[in-house]
């Protein structure tokens, strides 16, 4: 039967008007008749009921003998209902419209009868889970599966899902036949997205590859670029980062060649993420030069995507990488770039981070005045306007306390004792405020982690108190020496007053 159906399909495809293809009923050599009579579904149900009633009576006669006996109506009705319900499902109680139960085999044959051979093959691949996928899970991901850290995901083929999938496959194929390439690709991409939603990226890659083949045959550059981008995303999700980068770079070349700007931005955002993953891995392995090369690529991608936030993050990461290779001048250059973007984007947290880093780097370079300038700028920053966000407020107070402590130490080293005392007092006040906030938060939430942080802050309070005491004593020591040397009566009065 399948060979005969295939022959009919081939004949239809090679006809004069493929788009208007019509396929008649297929001959089944195993059936007793070749004539198909179209009946409404209500009449089909009546025929089944009559046939079943007759078979039930015949079986009962066979058991009881030739004597005619009354059959209980309830038993007969129950058997009829069981048989009919097994074969049919009622879709609409009001209209009485019936439909056969949808199975993988019935839906596949329905697709084949429509004349959609490509969709039939795709549907069989999907429902039997034998799809020849382009993207395979990496060894690292397979280890995750073995260790039960991740679970393999597969789509559940319910009746509704099979009908939806069948419709979408046939629609995509028919659009392709009619020369509507763009619309056909969109349908195939929708199918790919369905599998991506259940984390089945291997199956999704099969349809991205289909889009690539269609686009190449139609010489549709945008379709090619999107297909390569889709394959790149699939490779990334199964942890094949190098292959993902290759697909994305090919997609970008296609988009740039044909000046598809919206697509260039979209691909650049994807590439930005892939480059960042590679750069971070290289940095963790201690390959700082390679990491810097990929951070540079991240920077270019963020500029093409017009993504100011990620551009700032790239400058930040490059600055930190240059600190690790002890190239402090380059580090200052990139952190300053990061600071400018944070100010432009009104990113308060980023500003605080930049000022703090610049203060530390300039200190290591011996530029004490520049270090103090950046730490003062950090101290002058206002509190967050959103008072409901307590975590943001705590972060701000921590940055202020840290800046005050570093300024105090720098001033103390320069023998500027009054400035050191002022900054140590600011550090002490901020640390006390943090302690009080954490105490209130611990009382409200009762978290053990908050309790641990509060104990750490208590130690910082003690250290801050010591720093402030030493600076105050050092600041007043010259006056005390002068009093002891030149005004003994004042010393006696001070001791007497206690």
Describe the 3D structure.
The structure is a single chain. With 498 residues, the chain is mainly alpha-helical. It has helices at 2-13, 41-64, 73-87, 104-114, 117-127, 139-146, 159-177, 181-196, 201-218, 221-237, 241-257, 261-284, 288-304, 308-324, 328-345, 348-365, 368-379, 390-413, 417-445, 448-486, 488-497, and strands spanning 88-92, 97-100. Helix 19 (417-445) packs antiparallel against helix 20. It is elongated and about 130 Å long. The protein starts with a helix and ends with a helix. Mean pLDDT is 79; it is low at 15-42, 64-72 and 83-98.
Low-confidence stretches: 15-42, 64-72, 83-98
Structure summary, number of beta strands: 2
Q: Summarize the main sheet.
A: 2 strands, antiparallel
Q: How much helix, percentage-wise, in residues?
A: over 70%
CA-CA gap between termini: 113 Å
Order of helices and strands: HHHEEHHHHHHHHHHHHHHHHHH
Going across the major beta sheet, what is the strand order? 1-2
State the shape: elongated
> What fraction of residues sit in β-strands?
under 5%
Number of helices: 21
* Average predicted confidence as pLDDT: 79
Please describe the topology of this protein.
Blueprint: H1 2-13, H2 41-64, H3 73-87, E1 88-92, E2 97-100, H4 104-114, H5 117-127, H6 139-146, H7 159-177, H8 181-196, H9 201-218, H10 221-237, H11 241-257, H12 261-284, H13 288-304, H14 308-324, H15 328-345, H16 348-365, H17 368-379, H18 390-413, H19 417-445, H20 448-486, H21 488-497
Antiparallel strand pairs: 1-2
Helix pairs in contact: 2-3, 4-5, 4-7, 5-7, 7-8, 8-9, 9-10, 10-11, 10-12, 11-12, 12-13, 13-14, 14-15, 15-16, 16-17, 16-18, 17-18, 18-19, 19-20
